[in-house]
Amino acid sequence: MKTIIAAYSGVLRGTGSSVLSAIRDFPSLPFLNKSKVERHLQIISVLQWVMSFLLLGIACTIILAYVFCTDCWLIAALYLTWLVIDWQTPNKGGRRSQWVRNWAVWRYFRDYFPIRLVKTHNLLPSRNYIFGCHPHGIMCLGAFCNFGTEATGVSKKFPGIKPFLATLAGNFRMPVLREYLMSGGICPVSRDTIDYILSKNGTGNAVVIVIGGAAESLNCAPGKNAVTLKDRKGFVKIALQHGADLVPVYSFGENEAYKQVVFEEGSWGRWLQRKFQKYIGFAPCVFHGCGFFSEDSWGLVPYATPITTIVGEPITVPKMESPCQKDIELYHVLYLNSLQKLFDKWKTKFGLSETDVLEIN
Questions:
Q1: Where does the sequence pass through the membrane (predicted)?
Q2: Pairing of strands 259-260, 186-188
Q3: pTM: predicted TM-score of the whole model, two decimal places
Q4: pLDDT digits (tens, 9 = 90+) for 75-97
Q5: Is residue 232, in this structure, part of any structural domain at all?
Q6: Other CB atoms closer than 10 Å to residue 170's CB: what's the count?
Q7: What does the DSSP 8-state code read for residue 257?
Q8: pLDDT digits over 277-331, tens only?
Q9: Are residues 277 and 171 in the same domain?
Q10: CA 234 – CA 241 distance, rounded (Å)
Q11: d(Cα 348, Cα 323) in Å, to the nearest integer?
């Protein structure tokens, strides 16, 4: 047991070599063969991200409140003081750490599914970009791995391009979670943040927006290819105001990572989800993956299905300080057509048939 703990601590430090050396120390134990240990490390790496996504912010808020009621209240007071001083940092692009983005834990995360990033066209560092990422899935696993870490080599595939994965602004109001997210180059999906990155952060920036958001997550299910996009035009307006090129991105296999109970329109479950989406910003989903020890049992570990993220051809967008509705509609249609073309070109390579269509809602 000590051997496994020591091995995983090496993974968190960003060095995977300790895993193999730990295995070699105990060659006589059959359960410590290389493949099994690597698989367990992959599962642990995925599970730690899932639990961080679901519980880290709430848990740290409760702990901070508790510390205030103990003799260590000064620690909590100092952190809250820092929080007030640092409050606007996420809105200015955050505070990314290349060390965190290159952790070996993310490579184990990548290999669990596995997740791949496919480049189809070069991107110019002299331009700024808005990546429209589809579909949302339950936890945006493909978007996170590809753009929130360096596990799939995004910086090498797109030299000079710095990705900023945008997520719910509420996540950056939670202690510790905000620091964890910012270290990966993740920022709030707010107008102020996107404006700052595209206008005051130089060039070579790519804001990655999962455009369908909570509404799209309610309709994701294995075998379903649907995006919520018809009435989502705000990202096009922002692109025109800053002259940022639009890039469609599609993750094949994202919807297969979890199984979800999809409530019918008009049911109490759908009503509750809509209320949460409207007033809180996210929609609670009833979903499950597999168990830690067996894929036949239910749990929070996503199913090990390949996720391949295709970065499509950029759409050149002119800069217009006050774009009219006609211009917005034009580039929105161009984006829809480009996404459709991307889906149709690659779908047969990932288990879909020629008759499968992309449902655009």
A1: 43-67
A2: unpaired
A3: 0.87
A4: 999 999 999 999 999 999 999 99
A5: yes
A6: 12
A7: S
A8: 777 666 677 788 888 777 777 888 999 999 999 999 999 999 999 999 999 999 9
A9: yes
A10: 11
A11: 38
